[in-house]
């Protein structure tokens, strides 16, 4: 066997490893361990009842509208959703809700008794470009049990639907009080808003308590529940969504837990395991994409073309390696893990506001080089004497035709991918990295 033939064999085998190395070379893997077993389930937990500050200024309006008063500035203060409040690091101040009519946005601020603005709260990433409609409720509670009141706001925003219409949607925003600042937590906003039942302040507080319990012990099963494969998948999904785990850590956790509970880890079983991971993250992604039809369409298109690239690479590996079921299994698993990857893409698109055009352009050049090298090496192998010798009675002419077809398809799909990645931001860079893994794009 020639060195080029050996190279292609090794490259094809490395495809399996690189596709599952995780498209997160620069991220730190979560240190979460596989849940310890108990007779009642994955782990046991004890829920603590925490004290809650009772300093709540809330106004739930039955008609969902808030009265506004024009001020001398460009903002219209919403009088019935502005309150005098004592914040631990601010003292006695006034919390002011106001509508910026020019930008159709909600502006929240802290003012002193003279009406001077001391601090303007940040606009939550979860809100994005939605137009503000009205405030439903405001409350001040110590959600983090740190002795400082946090701010809860339930507001209605006008969002686009998949059918091109506009509709109001209630959204919860939580701001944690720190030293002279209030911080918006995107992951927590996502998890709180994932529940359709969170429509009142009490429901928000209850939801936050549940999420806090999950952070402490994310893989809890009551001893009253029957252990089934479906229940294990449900608990794993709830846990990983609550802990922001890295791709590799998620795969390891699922595998170790499946093994611990004697679940199906055959080749087909592992295929289904990765599809369970994909379905888990896809469910959260679908919730995040409510009211974002353009991003929803882009996410689907990116998923389709990214998995098509995987199909091309796996088909090429199949033809170069005399067939084998391994390629079909690895292709299926990569389709599954893309549920995780698209979830991360959406979150990066909504939260990472960094100029990465220069890095993106460099990465595109590197991908183009990798693609050219991959195509050249593949063609060299497909048209070598070893390709004929290894196949003996197999129709190598048809094999070469299939390889040529796959290479053309791969080239076409990469062109389409780069066209879709027009923002050239951190999210685009991440997807580009994922797509290039099968060609050795670990450094992208």
In terms of DSSP E residues, the strand content is 15-25%
Mean pLDDT: 81
Give the termini distance in whole angstroms.
32 Å
The general outline is elongated
Poorly predicted regions are 1-17, 25-72
- Count up the helices: 12
Helix content: 40-55%
**Subunit arrangement of the protein:** single chain
For the sheet with most strands, the description reads: 6 strands, antiparallel
The SSE order reads HEEEEEEEEEEHHHHHHHHHHH
Please describe what this structure looks like:
- With 444 residues, this protein is of the alpha+beta class.
- The chain is built from twelve helices and ten strands.
- The strands form two sheets. Strands 1, 2, 3, 4, 5 and 6 form a six-stranded antiparallel sheet that branches. Strands 7-8-9-10 form a four-stranded antiparallel sheet, covered by helices on one side.
Summary?
By secondary structure, the protein is an alpha+beta fold. Helix content is 48%, strand content 16%. β3 and β4 form a beta hairpin.
Topology:
Layout: H1 3-19, E1 69-70, E2 75-77, E3 83-87, E4 91-100, E5 105-111, E6 117-120, E7 131-141, E8 150-160, E9 166-178, E10 181-184, H2 186-193, H3 201-216, H4 229-243, H5 247-260, H6 267-288, H7 293-320, H8 326-351, H9 357-382, H10 385-391, H11 396-420, H12 426-436
Antiparallel strand pairs: 1-2, 2-4, 3-4, 4-5, 5-6, 7-8, 8-9, 9-10
């Amino acid at each position: 066997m020639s060195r080029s033939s050996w190279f292609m064999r090794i490259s094809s085998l490395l495809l399996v490893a690189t596709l599952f190395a995780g498209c997160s070379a620069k991220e730190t893997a979560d240190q979460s361990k596989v849940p310890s077993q108990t007779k009642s389930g994955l782990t046991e937990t004890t829920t603590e009842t925490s004290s809650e500050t009772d300093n709540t200024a809330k106004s739930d309006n039955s008609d969902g509208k808030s009265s506004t008063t024009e001020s001398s500035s460009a903002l219209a203060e919403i009088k019935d959703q502005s309150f005098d409040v004592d914040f631990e690091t601010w003292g006695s101040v006034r919390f002011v809700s106001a509508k910026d009519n020019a930008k159709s946005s909600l502006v929240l601020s802290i003012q002193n008794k003279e009406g001077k603005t001391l601090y303007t709260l940040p606009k939550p990433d979860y809100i994005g470009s939605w137009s503000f409609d009205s405030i439903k409720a405001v409350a001040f509670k110590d959600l983090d049990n740190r002795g400082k009141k946090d701010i809860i706001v339930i507001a209605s925003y006008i969002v686009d639907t998949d059918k091109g219409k506009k509709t109001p949607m209630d959204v919860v925003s939580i701001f944690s009080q720190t030293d002279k600042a209030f911080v918006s937590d995107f992951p927590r906003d996502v998890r709180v808003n994932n529940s359709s039942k969170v429509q009142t302040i009490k429901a928000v507080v209850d939801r936050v308590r549940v999420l806090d319990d999950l952070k402490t012990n994310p893989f809890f099963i009551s001893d009253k529940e029957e252990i089934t494969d479906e229940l294990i998948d449900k608990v794993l999904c709830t846990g990983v969504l609550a802990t922001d785990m890295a791709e590799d850590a998620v795969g390891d956790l699922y595998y170790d837990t499946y093994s611990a509970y004697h679940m199906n880890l055959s080749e087909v079983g592992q295929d289904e395991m990765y599809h369970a991971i994909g379905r888990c993250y896809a469910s959260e992604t679908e919730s995040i994409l409510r009211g974002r039809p353009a991003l929803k369409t882009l996410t689907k298109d990116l998923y389709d073309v990214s998995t098509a690239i995987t199909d091309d690479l796996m088909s090429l590996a199949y033809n170069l390696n005399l067939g084998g079921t391994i390629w079909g299994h690895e292709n299926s698993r990569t389709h599954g893990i893309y549920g995780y990857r698209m979830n991360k893409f959406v979150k990066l698109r909504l939260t990472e506001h960094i100029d990465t055009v220069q890095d993106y352009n460099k990465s595109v050049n590197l991908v183009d080089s990798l693609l050219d090298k991959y195509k050249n090496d593949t063609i060299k192998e497909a048209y070598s004497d070893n390709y004929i010798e290894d196949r003996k009675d197999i129709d190598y002419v048809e094999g070469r035709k299939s390889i040529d077809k796959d290479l053309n398809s791969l080239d076409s799909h990469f062109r389409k991918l780069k066209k879709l990645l027009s923002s050239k931001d951190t999210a685009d860079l991440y997807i580009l990295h994922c797509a290039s893994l099968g060609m050795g794009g670990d450094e992208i």
